[in-house]
């Protein structure tokens, strides 16, 4: 098991980063938020999870140990593979994920691409007793954890349209004040695109 990698960022793409460790370039699949924090040439230490399949070895990289722990835990639910687990930690922070599962919040879980209502109910049923309490200082009644998903959705939309993660982050920040309590992701994406076209 490769628990973490420490080295120099050699390249950052839309879905992964290459970290040079001892002269070897290791490709890590990461969430948009993690990729946005990486810079070419920077020294990094990223927790990792190695997924072994008959025909592949895939290394997933994370912003911190908490994100990695959630990624590995949600895969113990039936029907959740590494790609879906990565989508879950991309859309929801670890604490937002814990709150959603503990409070049986199906609506929040179905924001994750690939999770329908039945899938969300199954994940809640299988993980509710094992997910644990939120580790941050944000109380579970606070609406703050639910504010993040629109940012990830808009960023992923921009990256999918060919903008870099860095450009996408700036555009997301530029439209953040338009979000409001119930963000309209499509409208925010259009606003972000207008911001980028003006730039």
From TrEMBL:
Region (Domain III): 148-199
Major location (coarse): cytoplasm
Assembly behavior: Homotetramer. Forms an RuvA(8)-RuvB(12)-Holliday junction (HJ) complex. HJ DNA is sandwiched between 2 RuvA tetramers; dsDNA enters through RuvA and exits via RuvB. An RuvB hexamer assembles on each DNA strand where it exits the tetramer. Each RuvB hexamer is contacted by two RuvA subunits (via domain III) on 2 adjacent RuvB subunits; this complex drives branch migration. In the full resolvosome a probable DNA-RuvA(4)-RuvB(12)-RuvC(2) complex forms which resolves the HJ.
GO BP annotations listed: DNA recombination; DNA repair
Domain statement: Has three domains with a flexible linker between the domains II and III and assumes an 'L' shape. Domain III is highly mobile and contacts RuvB.
Alphabetical UniProt keywords: Cytoplasm, DNA damage, DNA recombination, DNA repair, DNA-binding
One GO cellular component, as annotated: Holliday junction resolvase complex
Record InterPro entries: DNA_helicase_Holl-junc_RuvA_I, Hlx-hairpin-Hlx_DNA-bd_motif, NA-bd_OB-fold, RuvA, RuvA_2-like, RuvA_C, RuvA_C_sf
Top-level division of the source organism's lineage: Bacteria
Gene name in the database record: ruvA
SUPFAM superfamilies with a match to the protein in the record: DNA helicase RuvA subunit, C-terminal domain, Nucleic acid-binding proteins, RuvA domain 2-like
Name the record gives this protein: Holliday junction branch migration complex subunit RuvA
GO molecular function list: ATP binding; four-way junction DNA binding; four-way junction helicase activity
Function: The RuvA-RuvB-RuvC complex processes Holliday junction (HJ) DNA during genetic recombination and DNA repair, while the RuvA-RuvB complex plays an important role in the rescue of blocked DNA replication forks via replication fork reversal (RFR). RuvA specifically binds to HJ cruciform DNA, conferring on it an open structure. The RuvB hexamer acts as an ATP-dependent pump, pulling dsDNA into and through the RuvAB complex. HJ branch migration allows RuvC to scan DNA until it finds its consensus sequence, where it cleaves and resolves the cruciform DNA.
Localization per record: Cytoplasm
Domain Helix-hairpin-helix DNA-binding motif class residue range list: 72-91, 107-126
């Amino acid at each position: 098991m490769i628990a973490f990698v420490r080295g120099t960022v050699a390249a950052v793409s839309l879905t992964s980063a290459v970290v040079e460790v001892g002269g070897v370039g290791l490709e890590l699949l990461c969430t948009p938020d993690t990729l946005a924090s990486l810079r070419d040439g920077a020294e990094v230490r990223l927790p990792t999870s190695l997924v072994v399949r008959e025909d592949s070895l895939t290394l997933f990289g994370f912003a911190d140990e908490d994100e990695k722990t959630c990624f590995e835990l949600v895969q113990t639910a039936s029907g959740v593979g590494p790609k879906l687990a990565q989508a879950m930690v991309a859309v929801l922070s670890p604490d937002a994920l814990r709150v959603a599962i503990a409070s049986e919040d199906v609506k929040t879980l179905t924001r994750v691409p690939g999770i329908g209502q039945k899938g969300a109910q199954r994940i809640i049923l299988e993980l509710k007793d094992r997910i644990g309490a939120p580790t941050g200082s944000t109380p579970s009644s606070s609406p703050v954890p639910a504010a993040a998903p629109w940012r990830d959705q808009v960023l992923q939309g921009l990256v999918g349209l060919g903008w870099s993660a860095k450009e996408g982050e700036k555009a997301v920040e530029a439209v953040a004040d338009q979000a409001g309590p119930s963000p309209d992701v499509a409208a925010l994406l259009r606003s972000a695109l207008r911001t980028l076209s003006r730039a």
